[in-house]
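S., here's the first fold you wanted:
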Amino acid sequence: MKNLTYLITAVFMATIVLNAQTSENPWAVSIGANIVGVQDDAVDSDTGFGVPHLSLSRYIAGGFSIGAQFAKNSFDINSISTDYLSIDGIVKFNITEGKYVPYLFAGYGLSKFGSDSSKEGNFPSTESARTILGGVGFNYYLSDNWAINASTSYRSANEAHAYNHLQHVIGVSFNFGAQDSDKDGVSDKKDVCPEIPGLKEFEGCPDTDGDGIPDNKDACPEEAGSAEMNGCPDSDGDGVADSEDACPDKAGSAEMNGCPDSDGDGIADNLDKCPEQVGEAANNGCPWADRDGDGVADKDDACPDEAGEAANNGCPAVPQKLIDFLQGDNSKILFKADSYVISNDATSKLNSLKAVLEEYPDASIIIEGHASEDGSSEYNQKLSEKRANSVKDALIASGIDANRLETKAYGETKPVADNNTKSGRAANRRVVFDRRVVIKIGE
């Protein structure tokens, strides 16, 4: 009998040593003490307190476990010292889950009440009775592995030399046997990273860069960072993680992808070819060229080499006297049919124009020639060119610099009157003036 007890105890202690580093395990082994009280008025019996009570169980599913248990005790029955042994197979059902777990159990086994040690076997048939049992108990978990347990059960053993009795047990249990694929001490059931060895404080996941953020939550698992940056570093401290920062060594803004905008023109320095000068995105962050310095970019300046005004497309303001001339009758010179000869009346008008141009030496003009629809369009185009050139030549002859004069010819394409009437055709044979200032010459 003693040998069996020693063997069971040794197996139990070996199991603890081998599995003490695991958690949340399906196997449970327990050791404790038991109290047995005979429930039979026909005998005089005291209550016995004995050790050990041993059990081994395996969680199956849905709260159910199966297992086996063994108990040893001794007490007096009718003033005779009686040894007690029991061994059973049991089924257990956990009512709840958590730290405090009540359970129900039932089983079937053998109970022995006897003192004759000369008989062969621990459960000789003459002193052992088949037993049906049922009871309640609870486990109070101190950790994932260790729990305190207590239970009480009624054991029905009606055969000869046996008695119905109550058995109360108190002890400790150890859970073990769960799979731990990565051998990190965290069972696969609880391990968020079951295939990679990790740390218990990170639910079994590693922290490769040691920044206190587990790899499964770390956007940069191999670079130490901060929680605010999801585990990534922010070398320049601008609130943009290096992995997303186009300028990781220069503090910038999120709007500029982590880069600065030194000139404040809305273009990040890494994309700005003129980072110290306010410019435009269309010109790669550089200001547009402005040769005459009048504030109107050359691309928009009708007079890029002559300072002017934005309201006048970068050209100097048109003198009022020139405007009055161009808007008056003197700005139109008419020609006879099929002619580009300047009349005396036209000469008088050109003299007036010359006087204005001499008063404003920075002004320049365009001379536009036109024709009526008499003749072919090709002929009229050439005729309008000759009329514009004749006016230009007359102005040059009067002393006006040729660089201030430009000619354009439109033939019969821009009539100002009805070509089906004599008066209309006469009005279309013109040159008129305007500012480049454009001077248009009537047909």
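And the second, which I think is the more interesting of the pair:
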Amino acid sequence: MSNTHSTSSIQLPIMEHFFTIQGEGFHTGRAAYFIRTAGCDVGCVWCDVKESWTSTPDQLMTLDAILQKVLNANAQFVVITGGEPTMHSLLALVNRLHENHIEVAIETAGVHSLDANIDWYCFSPKKFLKPIDEAYEKANELKVVINHISDFAWAEEHANKVSSECRLFLQPEWKKQDKLLPLLIDYVKGNQKWKISLQTHKYMNIP
């Protein structure tokens, strides 16, 4: 029996939502509806969406409203991101999306437990807050942002903790890309389990 009626009053703080093309990681180039939750307790100094760190009452959206936006776009793939989306219970939202045959991915720093059955778990650990063990177990994709040359060794520490099936990506911090990308290219040539992820949506000038 559907629990649609019992979950229709649930609200989540949503900073923004939009239909676009996934620009990073494994699903690069794929049409995706992004749902960006508000609120973050990780606080990356180089974050390019710092306005997502806090939430306000006017950002609350019901599950019905969120789902209708996705359905209106005819999107087949949803990416839940943040902020840090695992700060919130996502079970009801993901269930509603799955009821409508929509594939769901999450992008998370892995610092809180996830209460929903996600189709694709993109784990992007940050130095600012330690991930929990669950993130390594669930990760389908490990995406490490390289902000400093020391981050290569840090990325390897995380790669050693995920499953052998987990896809591995290194991504240069956007503002330092000119300096860091040549280092990433050389590193991946020498460590071929990794692939390079670029923020292609910024090249395409789309959200």
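Why I say that: The first strand starts at residue 11 and ends at 21. The beta strands are 11-21, 31-37, 60-62, 77-81, 103-108, 120-123, 141-146, 167-172, 194-196.

Talk tomorrow,
H.
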